[in-house]
């Protein structure tokens, strides 16, 4: 998609010129009548038909949009229609590309920011009131979302709370590096499944004080508990966007809906087993050493077991794939850019002259280049292609009246790769984020938002960034890593999954 800017210069220049002419015409017209506002239907976008709207664009063989390559769709829309694009795939949908407009949407004064996502999962959970009170953090809107978010927020988001897990995560990452060395993983293997197991171990300890032992021979069997958890997390996430656009599952259980339901049921079972084990343990003797999120959840005054089960399932859904994919893309960029990898190694060597030195929160705070590498990787390959909101009031954007209840998707991934916003945008350049660097850029704060913005931003952002950082520290400090595959793109399955195997070569460092 973004392989060569050179091949796209003419297209981009023509598009920019056309948009400039449109802007001049619109400004001229607007000045003639200050009270004039264009309506939503005036916004450029693909042709919409009665009943089906623009859904035909996503139909196999008939449409030219691929639901698993929404980054390509978003770029195609931007090229054809500009910085505001309307669609009607069953709902009124607006794509926003310009960071100033993205900021305007996020700055709306909404007590409970809403989004339209995980619609089928919401339906599934509300059909089981004996297990769930709500659809959980991911799919619930309104005051019930506000109640859950405010109840669990501090346990996830406090900087001090994240720091207490550094030692445990580092201990797991050390064992992982040792396992990689002993097993001599081959570049012919996909490294992603191993990262999935690593992050299952990490989230098990942080969230539940639970050891899954996912690297043991028994647990690597496809029918083991850890294998089925990883499979169920993917099964829950992979069909969400297609189900959000679909209609048939509302009338009968389609294969994709059944896959979602079966995946959710297994994650429910695991969550209940862990919760019951903890409750019975605490009945006998309180474990003062248990600093897991679950231990803190059980002390909350305004939640019950059904709220806790919902959040536990959300954690298993959200924490494994997202962190593994983010780490995969970071390793890809570092492996493809040996100069950047060497700079990172030099920083880590200065902070940890001995390989076996303990990673501490102080080391993490001093690892400036590491943070910029993670940030730059997330600019190029964010967790998702963008962030969605449902407008709760009418909004005016560029002279268009956008009515309430419109679903707005901020297309941050495409915007972050456009030359008018970032210099040499397809280049992995961590220095662009470092203020005292010659390559520092004053990038618009609403351009790259991998964790969202505001009250509805990722609740576990600090934990996720910390976990990725510790994994990279251990891997880069121990190995020189080379990329052995071709260009890596994304498969847009709600979250951005690498579209090819993670093919890496590891060579132990002597220092």
Global shape: globular
CATH topology, what is it called? Cytochrome p450
What is the radius of gyration?
Answer: 23 Å
Fourth-level CATH superfamily = Cytochrome P450
Which blocks of ≥5 consecutive residues have pLDDT under 50? Answer: 1-14, 16-34
Protein name: Cytochrome P450 302a1, mitochondrial
Keywords: Heme, Iron, Metal-binding, Monooxygenase, Oxidoreductase
Binding site for heme: 458
Family: Belongs to the cytochrome P450 family.
Describe this structure in words.
The chain has 511 residues and is α+β, with helices and mostly antiparallel strands. It has one domain (37-508): Cytochrome P450 (Cytochrome p450). Helix content is 49%, strand content 8%. Strands 1-2-6-3 form a 4-stranded mixed sheet, sandwiched between helices. Strand 4 and strand 5 form a beta hairpin. Helix 7 (166-183) runs parallel beside helix 18 and helix 14 (338-351) runs antiparallel to helix 16 (368-380). The radius of gyration is 23 Å and the shape is globular. The protein starts with 8 loop residues before the first helix and ends with a strand. Mean pLDDT is 91; it is low at 1-14 and 16-34. Heme binds at residue 458. Pfam families: p450.
């Amino acid at each position: 998609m973004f392989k060569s800017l050179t091949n796209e210069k003419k297209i981009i220049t023509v598009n920019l010129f056309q948009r400039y002419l449109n802007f001049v015409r619109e400004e001229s017209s607007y000045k003639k009548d200050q009270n004039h506002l264009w309506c939503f239907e005036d916004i450029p976008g693909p042709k919409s038909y009665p009943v089906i709207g623009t859904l035909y664009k996503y139909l196999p063989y008939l449409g030219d949009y691929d639901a698993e390559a929404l980054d390509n769709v978003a770029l195609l829309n931007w090229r054809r229609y500009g910085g505001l694009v309307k669609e009607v795939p069953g709902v009124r949908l607006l794509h926003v590309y310009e960071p100033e407009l993205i900021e305007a949407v996020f700055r709306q004064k909404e007590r409970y920011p809403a989004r339209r996502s995980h619609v089928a999962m919401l339906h599934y959970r509300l059909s089981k009131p004996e297990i769930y009170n709500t659809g959980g953090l991911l799919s619930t809107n309104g005051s019930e979302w506000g109640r859950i978010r405010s109840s669990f927020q501090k346990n996830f988001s406090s900087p001090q709370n994240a720091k207490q897990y550094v030692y445990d995560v580092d201990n797991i990452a050390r064992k992982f590096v040792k396992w990689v060395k002993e097993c001599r993983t081959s570049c012919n293997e996909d490294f992603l499944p191993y990262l999935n197991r690593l992050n299952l171990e990490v989230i098990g300890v942080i969230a539940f004080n639970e050891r899954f032992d996912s690297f043991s021979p028994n647990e690597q069997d496809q029918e083991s508990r850890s294998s089925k958890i990883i499979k169920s997390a993917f099964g829950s996430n992979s069909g969400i966007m297609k189900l959000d656009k679909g209609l048939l599952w509302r009338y009968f259980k389609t294969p994709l809906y059944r896959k979602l339901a079966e995946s959710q049921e297994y994650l429910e079972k695991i969550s209940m087993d862990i919760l019951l084990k903890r409750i019975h343990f605490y009945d006998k003797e309180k474990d003062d050493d248990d600093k897991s999120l679950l231990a803190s959840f059980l002390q909350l005054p305004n939640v019950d077991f059904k709220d806790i089960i919902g959040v536990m399932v959300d954690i298993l859904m959200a924490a494994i794939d997202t962190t593994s994919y983010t780490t995969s893309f970071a390793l890809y960029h570092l492996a493809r850019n040996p100069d950047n990898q060497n700079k990172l190694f030099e920083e880590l060597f200065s902070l940890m002259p001995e390989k076996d030195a303990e990673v501490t929160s102080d080391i993490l705070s001093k690892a400036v280049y590491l943070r910029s590498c993670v940030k730059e990787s997330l600019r190029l390959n964010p967790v998702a292609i963008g962030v969605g909101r449902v407008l709760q009031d009418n909004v005016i954007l560029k002279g268009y009246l956008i009515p309430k209840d419109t679903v707005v998707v901020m297309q941050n991934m495409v915007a972050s790769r456009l030359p008018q916003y970032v210099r040499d945008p397809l280049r992995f350049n961590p220095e662009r984020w470092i203020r005292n660097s010659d390559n520092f850029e004053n990038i618009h704060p609403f351009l790259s938002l991998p964790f969202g913005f505001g009250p509805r931003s990722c609740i576990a952002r600090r934990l996720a960034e910390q976990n990725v950082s510790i994994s990279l520290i251990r891997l880069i400090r121990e190995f020189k890593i080379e990329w052995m595959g071709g260009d890596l793109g994304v498969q847009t399955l709600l979250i951005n999954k690498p579209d090819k195997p993670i093919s890496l070569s590891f060579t132990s460092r002597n220092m």
